[in-house]
Amino acid sequence: MAARERVVVGLSGGVDSAVTAHLLKEQGHEVIGIFMKNWEDDDDSEYCSSNVDFVDAAAVADVLGIEIEHVNFAAEYKDRVFAEFLREYQAGRTPNPDVLCNAEIKFKAFLDHAMRLGAEKIATGHYARVRLNTATGRHELLKGLDPSKDQSYFLHRLNQAQLSKTLFPVGELRKSEVRRIADAIGLPNAKKKDSTGICFIGERPFREFLNRYIAGAPGPIQDERGRRIGEHVGLSFYTLGQRQGLGIGGVKGRPEEPWYVARKDVEANTLVVVQGHDHPLLLSQALEADDASWVSGEPPAPTAALGAKTRYRQADAPCALAPATAGTGFALHFAQPQWAVTPGQSAVLYDGEVCLGGGVIGKKA
User: Is 48 a catalytic residue?
Assistant: First the structure.
């Protein structure tokens, strides 16, 4: 990398992006901060705190002595991310909007905007790393060095063009070290808690939010034998493996054990629930994924040494990769059954620390 480059940093108001900007400035780069506003509907301080976050981001920019620009990507977000999010929920699947937001907003709309500002690179506070493989000439997406914070799962749809322009400085650090640096240089948000959940929902109850956009169609809740044991408020409001909020009381002839969502029968508008965390209906030995996206630009060669995550914050599960029975997706066969594999979520492949890419889970077996 050149000694001095113009780097545009996505400043979110959080500590990770703040330390990202600081580290780049320390390295001698010309750093410009951009605050992205991605959601406007009912944006208030109670749930969606973008106004508070911008104040924090501006305070960080002031301490670091860098410019900050407020950019509104709400229209792009609504078209490219939120519309797809609603479509998936209406189809009975459980999408991951963070994956789409990274591919469509943070590393597309934001990247394009940064290039218009004359940037040579962009940077974000994600816990991941980029490495140029000199043997292949391709950029590799690596896990962040802090295993408890690694975010490569959410970045698996990034391509070569995007990675070649991207820096992830905090991916080389542990979260505790990021906090220590923020404190040492007097950043005003050094102790700010990490944001959780989906950006446009914030801390509000998920079902209450979704209810505004998707009409509930109540239907039966059945056990694995087909016995009706309750009523659901609409299949869109439940996800596989869910235990809370099912509204099932004591069922005659069944033990007092928690119930879990095992299946959503969209055609029959029926929710199937089972008892026992490791019930066979909650376990899958294989899956098929659609809409595959590979970091290198082409699918990896099938090998027994690969691992996959079917949800964030799980250990890589040893698996074998095969072409899908139809279309451009792929199939995974796991050495051990996987729990609550959920259509709509991402199946992401790894070769050790290298994130290869992934796809959207369609069917499971």
Answer: no
